[in-house]
Amino acid sequence: MTKSLEASKNTKLRRILAAIGVRHIGNKTAKLIIDQISTQTNETKVIDNPIEYLTQYLTDAEFLSRIHGIGDKTVETCVKFFGDVDNVALLYQLHNA
Fold first, then answer.
1. What letter would DSSP give residue 70?
2. Which residues lie closer than 8 Å to 17 by C-beta, 6 or more apart?
3. Helices in the chain by DSSP H: which ranges?
4. CA distances from 40 to 22, 24, 35 (A)
5. What tens digit of pLDDT does each residue of 39-91 get?
């Protein structure tokens, strides 16, 4: 049961990433990204501070480029979107609502 609970947390974050409307990020790409973030860090911290971790990893072009299946356009779009303070502020507002 614990494994399925942890897996559902990743699913939710993946769905959020796919749903916020970042160009070139659909369900498949969001899954690739979230799975890679999960292998890099403590999942509990990601769940507790999802915007912080999304911003940290999705502004790192080198990190994104190492993910098999992520192309240059997606890397550029992620870095630009999550590097924009207005977008990040909106994500925090949505998270806190």
1. -
2. 25, 30, 33, 34, 54
3. 2-19, 27-40, 43-48, 50-58, 61-65, 72-83, 85-96
4. 22, 22, 9
5. 887 665 666 778 888 899 999 999 999 999 999 999 999 999 999 999 999 98
Cβ neighbour number for residue 73 with a 10 Å cutoff: 10
Q: In residues, how long is the chain?
A: 97
Question: Which of 32, 36, 43 is CA-nearest to residue 8?
Answer: 43
Tokens, residue 44: 């509990």
Architecture of domain 2-96 in CATH?
Answer: Orthogonal Bundle (1.10)
Higher local confidence (pLDDT), 95 or 59: 59
Q: Give the span between the Cα atoms of 64 and 83, in whole angstroms.
A: 14
Report the amino acid identity of residue 83: G
Domain ranges of the chain: 2-96
